[in-house]
Amino acid sequence: APAQRERLAAAHGIATLAAADESLRGAELVVWAVKPQVFAAAAAPCAALWRDALQLSVMAGIRSETIARAAEGSLRDALSLLESHTATAGARDHEFALCAAEARLRKGDFAGAAEGFARLAAREPGSPHSLEAAFWEARALVQADQLAQAAARLRDPDGPFQTAARVLPDHTLTQRGLLMLGQLLTGLKETEAAREVLTSLAGRTLPPPLEGERRLWLARVEFMAGQPAAALALTTNLWSGPTHELPADLVAETALQEGRAFEALKQSEAALLSYERALSSAAPEPLRRAALESMI
Q1: How much of the chain is in helix, strand and coil states, percent to nearest 5?
Q2: Going by C-beta distance under 8 Å and a sequence separation of 6 or more, which residues neighbour residue 52?
Q3: Which of 210, 164, 214, 175 has the alpha carbon at shortest distance from 194?
Q4: Whole-angstrom Cα distance, residue 104 to residue 98?
Q5: Phi, psi at residue 121, to the nearest 5°?
Q6: Rounded distance, CA 107 to CA 147, Å?
Q7: Running DSSP on this structure, what letter comes out for residue 179?
Q8: Distance CA 165, CA 130 (A)
Q9: Mean pLDDT for each consecutive 10-residue tract of the chain (296 residues)?
Q10: How far apart, in whole angstroms, are the C-alpha atoms of residue 210 and residue 230?
């Protein structure tokens, strides 16, 4: 997080980066101090930058050969080592298995990742570990374009996600998982079910970006259901607060949805203002193009 990087820089007089870049090329010493379950994902973008560096680790349970293989850029070999050591990892077997599933997700083996996460999610029902694995199983299924299956896994009342969500209703992954479920149901045109899920999040204290996403998707549901006025009520509320806390693409998508609602209500001038708001943001080019096309 930016604030944490600033604190580290101020406290230790060091340079910090949000992600690995060319400034790290030629490093002589690399100290790995990340959680074991995210090691494979952290190592992959770094491999080409410091293959000759000395690798020092303070991670528990990750063996030196795994680090060496990942540092050489061989994610497949690192994955094989992680999976081969899972059975003998003892109390840390969850971390090894989670790391292996995340590595599969990273290398594009979405089906394999989903299977790995599903096995983990079945352990310790109702625990944070089960919630984390169930969330990432659904993400892997989405990546594999198995949207109906992802929705089914998230909505199953006896499944690992809903079981953990009842125990941990305020956990960030519960909130994100329910938002994902609402998005999936919207895409599957199950508007009533999507409305129910997205409305259930209304009474919770969500971070501004998640609350913005919730309102946007609920507005889409209302618009799909032929209720442009209800959709408009959800989008216009976004502008009453500070939008600098929100991603630019979310701001633009909300403005586009608002413009469509105004158009449906035959309020052309208001619709143009909404499309202009999408154009003036730092949104990705496809969204800016969509706004421009809507104005023509």
Answers
A1: 70, 5, 25
A2: none
A3: 214
A4: 10
A5: -65, -30
A6: 20
A7: H
A8: 10
A9: 74 78 71 72 68 64 59 54 54 67 81 92 91 95 96 97 96 96 97 96 89 94 96 83 75 94 96 89 85 89
A10: 20
